[in-house]
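We treat protein structure as text, and this decision shapes the records that our systems exchange. Because each token names a local backbone shape, the row as a whole describes the fold. For reference, a complete record is included directly beneath this paragraph.
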Amino acid sequence: MQRQVKRYPKNCLLTVMDRYSAVVRNMEQVVMIPSLLRDMQLNVNGHQAKDEAPNLYNYFTMLKAIRVDVDHGLLPREEWWSKVAGGRAHEAEAEAAETEDEEGFLGQLDLEAQFHLHFSSLHHILTHLTLKAEEVTRKYQEIMEQAM
């Protein structure tokens, strides 16, 4: 079954999200043995990454997890809090509510600016993650070529 591709303007967030999903799906199809990525580091601007930098396997699993959120949406807030806070969801939510109350009035005055900040940040992050997925795919292909 062929998926219908929607056309959006080049800098549209939906275009960036679709491209990210497509690149990560391609990465998942190319990387047949993810464990080969475990001890490989991602090159940063042509230089080897630092020892504490995540390996390609960590990038692979992170990129797949983010794709699920991009494709299917976020978990409901309660599920997300319980997953992230590990049972301390009510405490964390109460703290967040207090912070929101304090920032409430000032935040409402500048909603448009906040929207543009978050929107551009999300656009930038998805573009960056797309490049990481392409790099993981390329690196895996290099590993497989060397093995043959």
Q: What stands out?
A: Residues 111-147 form the longest helix (37 residues). The mean pLDDT is 80. DSSP finds five helices and two strands in the chain.
